[in-house]
Amino acid sequence: MNFLGNVIWLIFGGLLTGLAYIICGLLTCLTIIGIPFGMQAIKIGVATLTPFGTEIMAAEDAGKPLQIIFNMIWLVLFGWEIAVAHLVHGLILGITIIGIPFAKQHFKLIPLALFPFGQVLK
Fold it and tell me: Which residues pair with 120 in a beta bridge?
């Protein structure tokens, strides 16, 4: 089911969205200040490419003061917009029975979109 879900996800927008996150993350990495934020955008892009079978878990070193500061900056600048987009898409997909598994994947990506620092993909 994971393979089929990921293939359908990629065909209907996951590929473009994931590549957009990765490209924007690479562009953000061009500046020294943007490297931490670019790496998190790339992480979200990878999670967006294959959400079925991917788990988002807290890292062992989560909760460090610098991660908390970066998460707050991320939340204000980028995170809330990404989270709202996942929420809206999840609500729209959740209307139909066929869209429910895809809605769950959007809802799963919301915490990563809000606070990516200190989280890992498994």
Answer: 57
What percentage of the chain reaches a pLDDT higher than 90?
Answer: 84
Q: What pTM did the predictor assign? A: 0.88
| 75 Cα distance to chain centroid | 13
Phi/psi class of residue 25: alpha, beta or left (left: φ > 0; alpha: ψ in -120 to 50)? Answer: alpha
DSSP code of residue 16: H
- Residue 99 and residue 88: Cα distance in Å, rounded? 13
C-beta neighbour count of 40 within 10 angstroms:
24
Q: How far, in Å, CA of 33 to CA of 30, rounded?
A: 9
Instruction: For residue 20, give both structure tokens.
Output: 């957009």
DSSP 112: H
Beta strand 119-121 with 56-58: parallel, antiparallel or unpaired?
A: antiparallel
pLDDT tens column, 27-86: 999 999 999 999 999 999 999 999 999 899 988 887 789 999 999 999 999 899 999 999
Collapse the DSSP code of 58 into the 3-class scheme (helix H, G, I; strand E, B; otherwise coil) and give the result.
Answer: strand
